[in-house]
Every structure is written in structure tokens, then in C-alpha cells.
Amino acid sequence: MAEALTLPCLTNARLIAGHNGAHRWIRVVNIMEVPDITRWMRGGEFLLTTGYPIRTDSEALTQLVPELSRHGLAALGIRIGPYLKESPPEMLAAADRLNFPVVEIPGDVTFNDILAEVLGTILNRQAVELERSEVIHRKFTSVALKGGSQRELIAALAKLIGLPSALLDAQGRTVVSSGSPPGEDCPAETCPIMAGGTLHGHIAVWTYGAELAPHQLTAMEHAATVAAMAVAQERAVVSRERRHSTLLLMELVSGRAVDREEMLRRVTAMRWNLDAPRAAMLVELSGPEGVLRIAEQPLEDRLMRAARTAAGADTIVWGLERALALLVGPGRSLAQVCQAVHDRLQRLCPEANVRIGCGRVYADFTDLHRSYQQAGEALALGRELHADGFVLRHDELGVYRLLYQLPQAELRRHVDEALGPLIEYDGAHKGSLLRTLECYLRHDRNGVATAAELRVHYNTLRYRLGQIERLTGEIEHHPMSRLQLEIAVHAHRLVAGATARPREPAPRPARDRRRNGARPRAARPAAP
User: Fold this and answer.
1) Measured between alpha carbons, how far is 498 from 408 in angstroms, rounded to an integer?
2) What Å distances lie between residue 377 and 366, 381, 403, CA to CA?
3) Closest by alpha carbon to 297, among 415, 373, 418, 197?
4) Which one of 288, 312, 352, 449 has the fewest CB atoms closer than 10 angstroms to its CB?
5) Checking phi first, is residue 208 left (phi over 0); if not, alpha (psi -120 to 50) or beta?
6) How far apart are CA 331 and CA 278, in angstroms?
């Protein structure tokens, strides 16, 4: 508006109110011909009036400025003459309060002159901006089609707008720059680089306090679009490569018969070293809402980088739906490698519980399906044995390694025969006899320690033990009965681990066939 007042048609016009709003942009010029003009307004108008439509309505005159300001108009031009002898003081006071420009137009200036000159200036500038926008579009399109680097993109931007420019990462660090941007000053204008709904950084421009012209803002937006397209292309390539490598790795650990030479050729193409001994490791993170989803989440990349850093650069890592899978070298100690991965991921996600199951080390890559299955078994059992995060290796499972060799149906049958009455009683009476038995056996039948952990009186524990003996038989006096109960308790944990919650539909390794060629045993708890 302030610039419009310098045009010849408005040389003798006076800004009589709303001086602080003189920076408002004029989009179009219009003339007030009806009292309810505001319903036809779209914002940015420089509205001209003689006051004729509301000359007899003092309230309408008073409310005109607030209505125009509310609808986003640029300014009001009033020609003082036969219809309005002067601008009402209430109107001018409202204009000052709302920073809405009110211009007094001399009586010898026609509205047609203002329309022609102001609109002509706007259209000429729009034509210039369109031409500049076309130049900007062609320049950045050329950079994109030629596969230009980020440095070339920022150099093109700095040349087009004549200001120091830079590309910043999502943390605000400078990736590339051009035009010698000041080192310590923050950029005055930034434009986000968005791809896939995620912020990947900003295009930054240093203006040294000046306001950017429309073509400069357009150039920033074009640069951000090209940068986002490059990010999207890179993510698509990475995603395709990751899917290919995941399918290959799942084929490797699935246990299906594979051609050794063909597999070697494929893993060599992926630059994986499978000549060294390796063990499979499965990692899942759980929070208040359950196991966290990992695949195709921003968390996946961070977890993979952190796990590879902790386990070693030679580690092969891939993401499953709700778990992370690794093929790790044992190093000096497989236990130390597992703990290092756990600690690193726990620091990365301090609010989550990190759970790790690890299989045994195998020298031949064709045996890695065994290690992967063992890692799944350790992870499933760990969920039942530990409430929070844990690291559990297959060689630590003890008696559970033997139980895992039994078919699920046989385990369930033994649990039903030995613990069925307890499970039924607890379900019918909301009791805790099974938990009491587990705790009692874990403390080597020490009643004092058991009562302390359960936080019950010793007499309460004795009463529960009496119920357990009545339902299952003598605990203390029959060694075989004690052994069967302990085995049943451990088997119950395996069964519970396999059926506690649905597992994601990831490929599951097949069981080894018996040497005599019999059919494979029943399915074990699925790996994540």
C-alpha cells in the first residue's frame, strides 16, 4: 500500500489512518457499489468508495473498517466530496486500532485512473514474476534431470536469488552451502524439505534483514521440492535394496533346501561375508502398548545403525515387522556381543524394554537356520521368564533346550496331566496356586523365601501348598511326582510363550528332519 501511494494517480492522496498497516499487499482494486460489499470480498483488495452506498447509515460507516479488516482487505480509499464531507472520527480511530490503512483521495482523481494504474502495476509485476518463476523452474528441472548433487542444487539457488544459501539436515546442521553464508548468524528464511511425511531438513537463505521478494520465495520452494524428490528417490532405492536383502536373508535362515553355489553367488553380490562363524540374534522392543513396530518406521534405520555399531561393521542386520534380526560374529565372547547390542539399543530407546534372544554360533552359513530358530526359542522363553528387558542365549536355556525338542502336542499333554487341576482351579476361583507352585519350586521348596516373594503369611502359603498337594499329589514325598511337576512348570512356560499373543507373519525356519527320514516334528514357537 505504501508503494501504491507513490504512483502518479495517488500522488496527492493522503494516508489519514492505519499508518502501521501500510505494508499490506494489494492483490486487486475494487469499487464499493453496494452496502454489503464485504460478502463479495476475497482478501487483498484496495477498496475505493465515495461513501454513497452507506451515506445515510452512520452505524454502517463506523463498522465498515472492522469488517474490511476482518475480511483481509488491503486498504480503504475514500473520496471526499458531495456524499462524505469528511471521514468519521470513529472510523479513523478503528483504523488506527486495527492498523488498517485509510486513504483520502482527492476529488479530481477518477477511480478509473486508480484502477488502470494500480492494476497495471500489479499485472506487470505478476508477468515479471511468472517469467522469473519459469526461469527458476527450468533451472531446477535441469539440475534434477541431470542428477545434480545437493551442492549443485544450492549453488543454483544462490545464483538465482543472489543471496547466501544452504541445505540443512533435520537437526539444523549445514550439509552444503553456497555464497559464503555467515557462520554464526541464523538464516532469516527457511523452507522445509518434506518427503513421505517426514522432515528431512531445510533450505536456508540469509537475507541480512531484508524481506525476500516473491520470486526468491518461489526459488526456495522449488529448491525444497527438488531436494525432497531426491530424498524420495534415494529412499525408494534403499527400500528396494532392503526388501531384496531381507528376502534373501529370510531364505537363508528359513531352513529350506538351497543351492549352496547359488546362495554364495547371491550373498557375494550383496558384499556379505559368510565365511566367518556367525550366530543369529533377534531383538524386539516393548513399551506400555506392547511390542513396538519396527519395519518401515523411522526407528528401523536408527536401530539398524546402532546394532551394527555395537556388534561390529561386519554384522548383517535386517528388519522384520516387530523385530530386528542380526547375523553376528562371536568376537571374543558372544555374551559380550549380545550385551553390547542390548546396552546400545537401550541407550537409543531408554523408555523401551530391549529383549534379545540369541542362537548358537555356526561356522557354515547353511546351518544358520538352526541358530535363527534357537534365537526365536530363546526370545519366546525370555518373554515368560523376564518381565522387562533381557539378553538370553540358547546355550543358557538348560532344560528348556531338551523340552524344545518335544512336539508341542506332547508338551501340552504333559502340562494338562500334571497341572490341569491347578489351572482349572485358578481359572474358576481367580486363584494363584500355579504361581505359588512355580515360586515354591524356584526357591528349592523354601517356604520362608516363597512366602516373602509372594508377600503372604506363612500359614497362607501352607494352606496353598495343601491345596496343591490335594489337586496334584504329594510334592515332598514322591521324587517322581516332584520331577514331573517341575518339568510341567517349565513346559507350561514354553506353551504359554508360544500361545500368549499372535506373532507376525514372518517366515519360520523348518525343523530338522530325523535321520531315519521321518516327518518333521510339530512346529515350535514362531520367531518374530
Assistant:
1) 9
2) 19, 6, 11
3) 197
4) 288
5) left
6) 9
C-alpha cell at 265: 553367488
The sign of the dihedral angle between the CA atoms of 115, 118, 122, 124 is positive
Q: Which residues pair with 49 in a beta bridge?
A: 78
Q: Which of 323, 288, 291, 290 is nearest to 304 (CA)?
A: 323
Among residues 515, 482, 512, 279, the alpha carbon closest in space to that of 404 is found at: 512
* Grid cell listed for 159: 545464483
Residue ranges of the chain with pLDDT lower than 70? Answer: 35, 56, 58, 128-132, 183-187, 295-298, 474-478, 481, 497-528
d(C-alpha 413, C-alpha 400), whole Å? 17
Whole-number Å distance between alpha carbons of 375 and 404 = 12
Order of strands across the sheet with 14-17?
A: 14-17, 102-105, 75-79, 45-49, 28-31
* pTM of the entire predicted model: 0.52
User: In this structure, what C-alpha cell is assigned to residue 120?
Assistant: 497495471
Label each residue of 59-86 as H, E or C.
Answer: HHHHHHHHHHHHCCCCEEEEECCCCCCC
Cell of 117: 494504474
3-state secondary structure of 518: coil
d(CA 274, CA 314): 10
- Cross-strand bridge partners of residue 167: 176, 203
Report pLDDT digits (tens) over 293-322.
876 666 788 899 999 999 998 999 988 888
Cα dihedral 66, 67, 70, 75, rounded to 10, equals -80
Grid coordinates in use for 460? 497362607
What one-letter code names the amino acid at 343?
A: D
Cβ atoms < 10 Å from Cβ of 308: 18
Angle at CA 209, nearest 5°, toward 206 and 213?
Answer: 75
